[in-house]
Amino acid sequence: MSFPTPLADIAPNTLAFESTPLVKPTGFREYDARWWFGHPGSPKPPELNLMGVQALGLGLGTLIHRLGVKREIVTGHDFRGYSSAIKMALVSGLMAAGCKVHDIGLAMSPMAYFAQFALDVPAVAMVTASHNDNGWTGVKMGAQRPVTFGPDEMGQLRDIVLAGDFEMAPGGSYHFVADFPARYAADLTTRSKIKRKLKVVCACGNGTAGAFAPAILEALGVEVVPLDTVLDHSFPRYNPNPEDLHMLHAMADAVKEHKADLALGFDGDGDRCGVVDNHGDEIFADKIGALLARDLARVHGPSTFVVDVKSTGLFMTDPELKRLGATTDYWKTGHSYIKRRVKELNALAGFEKSGHFFFNAPVGRGYDDGLVTAIAVLDMLDRNPQKSMADLYADLPRTWGSPTMAPHCADEVKYGIVDKVVQIFKDKQAKGEPVADSAIVDLVTVNGVRVTTSDGTWGLVRASSNKPELVVVVESPVSESRMRDMFKAIDQVLRTFPDVGAYNQTI
Questions:
Q1: Quick one: how far is CA 113 from the chain centroid?
Q2: Backbone angles phi, psi at 118, to 5 degrees
Q3: Extended strands (E) in 312-371
């Protein structure tokens, strides 16, 4: 048996397009896969065809076998007009590689992760493009619950698929798991109800979460105000992304209109959650993480948390977290990295600034689930019946932080420049030289460099994972002027490199 080797470029609506797999190499990202599949009338050529998806399934089944994992896998798909077809093409490739496939149907990504546990299946392949525009597709994959693939596995998968290095095997089978959404909902709602009377805006941006989130929140005992919960993969109002200002503004307007206690916003595949408070103000995900760390440490005692290097310094400086004995590990940005680090350290939770949150037992199973995050927020409010969401946020020490700034830097040189920037700050620390007129007390270099000075002011420089850019973030617990001092210090270093261009925004 054999299968043709994929090509990186084929003109659509041709004999070759119908008889040869198309898989553009750039679709293999650091921790998932994402391609432009296209839609009628789109001028952009597709990066993937259905035979290419079959090749991906064959490659994934081959990799699972080579990793020494039982060839058994869960799959599901998000709500797009073509996702079911893509999933079935993926399934045919997986079966050709000898895999037993458990199909849970229309689902959010965390439902597929839950299925790995509920069905006792080692691997997962969830067909989703998350909050990307209509026309995009992708797959989130893993072969060791609860973690998903990182750069090593994605690199191996890419090499297998692009070289056509497939191992076809007999014994593949297909099983559709009936009524699995009810099983997932029962897992989240078979518990005590929220005692506090809460009115909650449930915003889904017309993404897949709209089919599941409102009913689950209602079953927990809160009053739900549905917002854009009708499934529509054209995303008529805005993309379902709780970092997107259009979605956040819609959530804020709904909170004010309905006099709600908060709004919870879910991304397209339901693994992220954003929060708007009772005043209609957004609370960034890293600050929600700090609030949840306080709450969980009060309940569970001294705990370890993992956060990405873009996140607030409050995890280290907050007096309340110190009093509670909480410790924090700053780690690489990216949901796959944080998820793995939470597992490695057996941390109670991990928080990524993009809104991917990971809770270990007894709160969760270690994977990112927007609804588990939402329930953790509701439980926090339930444990603080006299305080609103805005009150809890106001209890955090104030910080002055920048937006994520992104000076242009070509993909070919960005990592080398970051390496040089890291060395510059290492040399400064070794020589006792100040940064922004203050002594360096900590350097975190797991993902670029995060430099922290004696007053808690910090700055980050790292290479963007998926764009020709650097990432620059600064924050100070002291004052806006100290935040600006740190930005100037970092900017002065970056200006010594001619290949670093203009910022997308600045402060």
A1: 14
A2: -65, -35
A3: 327-331, 349-351, 357-359
Can you tell me the distance from the alpha carbon of 267 to that of 479, in angstroms, rounded to the nearest whole number? 33
Q: Which of 450, 448, 455, 458 is nearest to 483 (CA)?
A: 458
**HSE of 258 in the Cβ direction (CA atoms, 13 Å)?**
21
pLDDT confidence band for 467 (50 / 70 / 90): confident
Residues with Cβ within 8 Å of 165's Cβ and at least 6 positions away in sequence, in order, are 59, 62, 159
Binning pLDDT at 50, 70 and 90, where does residue 1 land? low
CB neighbours of 331 closer than 8 A, spacing ≥ 6? Answer: 306, 307, 308, 309, 337, 338, 341, 350, 446, 447
CA 474 to each of CA 282, 469, 477, 498: distance values in angstroms, whole numbers, following the listed order: 19, 16, 11, 22
pTM over 0.90: yes
Query: Which residue type sits at 407?
Result: P
**Secondary structure string (H, E, C) spanning 229-258:** CCCCCCCCCCCCCCCCHHHHHHHHHHHHHH
- Taking the C-alpha atoms of residue 464 and residue 394, their distance in angstroms, rounded to an integer, is 32
3-state secondary structure of 18: helix
Give the residue carrying structure tokens 């009772």: 278
**What is the spatial distance between Cα 444 and Cα 416, in angstroms, rounded to a whole number?**
17
